[in-house]
Amino acid sequence: MASKFESLSLAPNISMPMTSVKLNGKNYMLWSRSIKMFLKGKGLRPTHLIDPIPASTSSTFAQWKQEDAQILSLMLTSIEPSICSSLIHFDTAQEVWGHLKQMYSSAGNITRIYELCK
Description:
Low-confidence stretches: 1-15
InterPro entries: Copia-like_N (IPR029472)
Shape: globular
Number of helices: 5
Distance between the termini: 50 Å
Helix content: 40-55%
Strand content: under 5%
Number of strands: 0
Radius of gyration: 15 Å
Organism: Carya illinoinensis (Pecan)
Pfam family, one: Retrotran_gag_3
Mean pLDDT: 81
Protein name: Retrotransposon Copia-like N-terminal domain-containing protein
Domain Retrotransposon Copia-like N-terminal: 12-42
């Protein structure tokens, strides 16, 4: 059976951005929706970004890690460099996704605080 990743056919097009929308700090809702739609369109559940990470001893971990690296790489191409530079200490797409949601979604005051501190 082909893995989810093999059905994505992303490897030859690794430089292809996930979306033409680049996260700039003010367009999080549009950007996050575009990322989710891209993943759905490639046959990958967007829940990869929120599901629990498999244990490193799990038989699915190697597959998950490969998929995550591809998703993370593609996500980073859809983020403005000024934001991207603050993400270098995150190891997974899920960590980046969670951080960006916390920073830029309108779910709290963090976005406003960030803007005020600039």
